[in-house]
Write a structure and sequence with these properties.
This protein has about 180 residues and is mainly alpha-helical. The protein is built from ten helices and no strands. α1 runs antiparallel to α2 and α2 crosses α10. The longest helix is centred in the N-terminal third of the chain and has 26 residues.
């Protein structure tokens, strides 16, 4: 029952993200079959079968499962609404784990972008946790920092380095990420 509800929620909330992701993957030359359907399947496997950082089961998972879960949420949020949306929706429970997850996945270029952005603008986990209270209308958060600067570079990296392929390659080397072990 729980898996069915989670799947329904994922399909409802993330359907647009997956359509956007599929279209982006298909735009990459020669990558149609490699990225779109396989990445979508991996995304659902990870979201359904792994624990979030707020869950007691998170630390019981392998580092690969932890990293993949954090990355999938991070990537989905950044692609759907940008870094500000990620911070607003996920707060420090996820934001604090992003650098380690990116390094585990071999995405050092994205980790440098993320950590560099936080450092450049002095963004702390305490600040991130306060965004919902400081900006209850959500719109104001976009005025706090130039979040589009991060999102634009992230999407360049995503496209130019074929982030889907890199994450899928990692998942193939770590099959436990599909079942949250």
């Amino acid at each position: 029952m729980k898996k069915a509800l989670v799947m329904m929620l994922c399909l409802t909330l993330f359907g647009g993200f997956l359509l956007q992701r599929s279209a982006g993957a298909m735009a990459l030359s020669g990558e149609d079959d490699y990225c779109s359907a396989e990445f979508e399947n991996l995304y659902f496997d990870v979201i359904i079968n792994t624990h979030s950082p707020e869950s007691p089961g998170f630390l019981a998972q392998s580092k690969a499962s932890q990293a993949m879960h954090v990355f999938m949420i991070f990537d989905m949020e950044v692609q759907c609404g940008g870094l500000a949306t990620f911070f607003w929706n996920c707060e420090s429970a996820y934001a604090d784990k992003v650098p380690e997850a990116l390094i585990e996945l071999g995405l050092e270029d994205v980790e440098q972008l993320y950590s560099g952005f936080l450092e450049k603008y002095g963004i702390t986990m305490e600040e991130i946790d306060g965004y919902r209270y400081e900006y209850p209308d959500y719109i104001g958060i976009h005025e706090a920092h130039p979040f589009d600067e991060f999102s634009d570079v992230y999407m360049e990296i995503w496209t130019e380095t074929n982030l889907n392929r890199r994450v899928l390659d990692y998942a193939r080397e770590h099959p436990e990420v599909r079942v949250g072990q």
